[in-house]
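Changelog-adjacent note: as of this version, every example in the card shows the full chain rather than a window. The one below runs 317 residues end to end.
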Amino acid sequence: MSERIGITGANGFVGRAVTRALLDGGREPLGIVRQSAGPHSVRINSLDAITPAVFEGCASVIHLAARVHVMNDAAADPLAAFRAVNVDGALKTADAAHSAGATRFVFVSSIKALAELDDGRPLTETDERRPPDPYGVSKAEAEVMLQEFGARTGLEIVIVRPPLVYGPEVRANFLALMRAIAKGIPLPIGAVTAQRSLVYVDNLASAIVECATHPRAANQLFHVTDGEDPGVAELARRLGHHLNRPARLVPVPVGILKAAGRLTGKTAQIERLTGSLCVDSSHIRDVLGWRPPFSLDAGLAATAAWFLRNRERSEKG
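Full-length structure tokens:
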């Protein structure tokens, strides 16, 4: 092992992939986790408990810990709840990393810090931030405040914005889509051609490691995708191929879907389903020379294979 790199949220979906990528690259990951501290981790109760001692010997810190976007948020004040973790927690972690002597802080944000849909062209890092919800607002505020912190202290801030992340052990909407396809449930998305950028979790991990270690990544903001933007219906068909169960897609006109959304109070969900979210990730390729190690099809195949191996458990999760 040569270089120690701290990772908050190391037990999470992306954190586990980043830990593997660091180990495969001969680097020493130090996971900052809330449960089951192992040989490469330190256990803390919350981000409030982070001190400089936690990051002793770390050349850089990757910050993944966050309050994530959830549907039907039960918090009395969702924005305040997101800010407490995603803004205040990120700044406290950056301050502890800097005090411990780390020279770089990689903040894994979200494309929601920028927007939820594109404006007819792929979103770039220089576009104006227009976050669509409290989660996106908290991520956008954290980006700005961390950049200001870096300017004051000299800590190199690198921001990574992924779109939807998928891969083995994925949850939420992507898992629900696989379940529906595997069960042969008809899906009314056959006429939805809107394109969506995605990133396979191991591609994202590869990019994050580059951001933590590459000299030219200092103080940059990067979008990270698989580099291919499938349409919604195309994505379902490709998943069906890998699940050995052709997707049953009903070509309901988009206008009817939107009308149904208005009638059922699900306009926002239908807009997300039928709207385009394409993300330009050429900046990280140009600056760092990074390329995704896995194609979109390889990522979908690995995700579907995991689902089929663990179908009974994943259908209960």
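Structural remarks: DSSP finds eleven helices and nine strands in the chain.
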